[in-house]
Each structure stands twice: as C-alpha cells, then as structure tokens.
Amino acid sequence: MFRNAFENASHRATRPGLVLAAVAVVQFMVSLDLSVVNLGLPRIGAALGFSEVGLTWVIHAYALTFGGFLLLGGKLADRYGRRRILLLGLAVFGLASLAGGFASLAGHLVAARAVQGIGAAALAPAALSLLTSTFPGGKARVRAFGVWSAVNAAGGALGVLIGGLLTEYASWRWLMFVNVPMAAGALILAARSVAADPPAECRGRPDVLGAVLATAGMVLLVFGVVRTDRHAWTSSTTLTTLLIAVVLLAAFVYVEKTTTRDPLIRLGLFANRFVVGANAFNLLLGAAMASCFYFVSLYIQRVLGTGPATTGLQFLPFALGVVLGAVLAVKFGYRAAPRTLLAVGGLLTATGFAWFGFISAHGSFLVDVLGPSIVTSVGFGLCLGPVVSIATRGVAEHETGTASGLLASSRQIGASLGLAALGTAAHRRTGAAGTLNDGYALGLTLGAVLLAGAVVVALTVLPRVVLAAPSLVGEKR
To answer: Binning pLDDT at 50, 70 and 90, where does residue 245 land?
Structure first.
C-alpha cells in the first residue's frame, strides 16, 4: 500500500514537459562533447605542450570511460534511482568540464576528459530511462523520442560548428567551459521536474564481480580499438589487448549466468527481439555515422582547404536535415512500424554515404558535400527516434536503465570499431599510391555497406509493432 501511494504521489509530482526539456539538454550536451573538441585539437596541443601521440588522448580519455562505464551507469540508475544518478552524473560532468577549462598541464586536461566520460556514462542511461518511464506509450512517446533524436543528432553536428567558432574566435578553453551552463541548467530542470524514485525493490546484493568484469572488458575493448591509429590490427599490442577484453567479457557472461546476486545484465533481456534488433541496428548505425563526421570534416579541411569556422558552418545543413528526419519520424511513427522507419531511414542514409563515395579531389562543397549531407542526415534523423524508443519495449520497469545503458554501449562500441576499421581501410588506400580523397571515399563507401547490413537487421529481427501502439513497458518477455 505504501509503495502504491508513493508511486501515485511521484507520478503527480513529475512534470513531463520539464522532464523532456531536461533530458533534451542532457542529450545535447553529451552529443556535443563527442565532437566539440575535434577542431580545437591543434591549438590545445600547442597551448598545453601535448606530443602528437598524447594529443589523441583528449579524445580517447572521454571515449574510454564513457563507453566502458555505460553498462554500470544504467544498472546504478535501476538500483539506486534514475533521479539520483542523473543529478550525480550532471554534477560530475559539469565540475569536470570546469576543471578541464582551467587545465594548465596536458595531464590535467586528459584527467578532466576521463571524469567527464564517467559523468556522461552515469547520466546518459539515467536520462533515457527517465524518458521511457515518463512517456510509456502512445503519441506522446513518439513525440518525446522525436525531440530526443533531434537534439541528439543536432548536438553531434553542431558540435563541429560550435567547436570551430569557439576555437577561432574565443579560446580552446571554451570547448570545455561551454558544458558548464548546460549542465547547471539541466541540473536545475531535473531537480524541479523529476519526482523522487519509489523505494527500490530488494533484489539481492549487487553483482560487484560482474560489474568489474564488464567495465574492465568494455574499457579494454574500446582501448584496443581506438589505439589502432598507432598499432596495427595485427600487432601484438592490439591482439593482446583485444584478447584480454574478450576473455573478461566472456567471464562476465559466465558470472551473469551463474551468480546468485542481482546481475548487472539479466541475460534474459536478449530473448527480447526489440532489445536485440535495436542494439544490432544501433551498433552498425554508430559505426557508419562516426566515420561520416570524421571523413567529411577531414575532406572539407584537408582536400578543399576550408578553415575550422567555415567547416563548422558547412555542417549546419546536416544538423537541419537530422531535425527534418526526426520530424518525419514523428509524423509517420503514429502509423508505421519501427522496422519500416528504420529500413527507410537506413536506405536513405546508405544512399547518402554511397553518394559521398564519389567525392572529388577537385570538388567543392556545393557539388560534393551539400547534396549527400542532406540525404544522409534526413535518413539518420528517421532512424534515431525509433531505434531508441524500441530498445526498451517489453522491458520491465526496473530494467529500463540497464536496457538504456546497453543501447548507449552498442552505439559507442560501434562508433569506436567503425571509425578504427574504416579509418584503417582509408589509410591503406591512401598509402597504396592513392590520395587523401581516395581514402576518404573508400571509408564512406564501406559505411554504406554497414548501413545496408543495418537495414537487413531491421527487416529480419524486429517485430511489426507501431510506436504509437499501447505501451509494452513492464510486460515480461
């Protein structure tokens, strides 16, 4: 009786509009931070005395902790409360950003980026789980995830624009400071709009060993992949790192199957076709899109000779295209099955990548970049809302944080694997008496192949269910 009364009071206290606003700010901030520092790396290196190898850790430190701690962050949200973990993650992220902006040594900035990643790994799955529980079904869910998908992609695309402008007209330190007001604003919104979580059900002692194995395995997996920019895939360093990661993750699966404690991930989740299909699609989509931002930004700067600020501005049509795709996903999401939206969006995105594959060494922004950017971004926008919404369909309420963390992990792992693999292929093409343009074109063409695979996953794995249908949250599968 007490629990029901608490849930009813919590439901009345929750303000869905402000919850959506808080989650939108959180997702924009996390997405922004994945790309905002890229164009400022040369000036960061010069200011803090980074070596060429050391400078890559400004990117890698964030990617490692963010990707490595996502599963743990999702489980903590389920066990200790979404509101509590969200507020804690925002505080950590904001303070780490402030410290990074004041960094006076290279090591200080790398440490700040690592702590940023930990904060993001806590707040991202908590925010997504909160969105799922606040909008459990119907048209409101379609609209909410449409907004989420628009700000998610806009953050990534606008990160390049904002990073270029801040680097050229302000200081590289503002690449870190820019997060502070967003984190503070989201913290205030979340504190005012999100009701306290109901008392947690007692589900046994936490699975500490599983958490350690999963986190260590994920960190080593991402580390082994991102370091292929310095060590070849066939090098002893890479093979040893990846082998240890696989052993740790295999041990994690064994522990999850045999533990008598509350597991980090209940393996029964993978019997849910929505969970499996969404994560497989998301992994391939993440692999392709990470390479898109990377290759296209390099093509614009190194081949077309465009400066950082102008390069950022030229990504603006991409951001607008994603918003358009998200709006279309909302419009058609009321009556179309998610797998249909994902198939159409995946095909559009693959078409844009294939078009990018024809970029010319003597091209221009209008001829070689603008058209494929629009096609790619609209398709990407069509995919984002549906894939996130269905990732928690049929998942019990107390496991939505775990499912959200799993989805974020698949995206991060896909991005790391895709960028490393396609980057290696592009480098080999360039090294074989090719030009920079040849390598970028090959990488983007291979991205189209990955997206074609994602379309196959959508059509063969996902069930035919309309997003605006009655909620399946809480239903056991």
So the answer is: very high
